[in-house]
Amino acid sequence: MPVTKLDDKGRILLPSEIRKAEKLKEGDEFAVDSLGGGVFIIKKIDLRSLLEEAIEKARGIDHEKVEREIEEESNQLAKKRF
User: Fold this and answer.
1) Taking the domains of the chain in order of start, what are their residue ranges?
2) pTM assigned to the model
3) pLDDT class of 49 with cuts at 50, 70, 90
4) What's the DSSP call for residue 25?
């Protein structure tokens, strides 16, 4: 298992064999999470693809139906409260 260090700016250099094997390049983006106890998850993400996918899903939503449902729900909550 390759070993790397954290630099003074908080960066971790991924070893070259990992970068080559995963075809990583400068500018690639990653999501990072801590599981606690010194365990971290680093996952390569493609923000552009995620945004395009979210936009495509949003296009399929019936916005008028959602607005009606929100209004009905808020009316029911108001009736219970007052």
Assistant:
1) 16-81
2) 0.55
3) confident
4) -
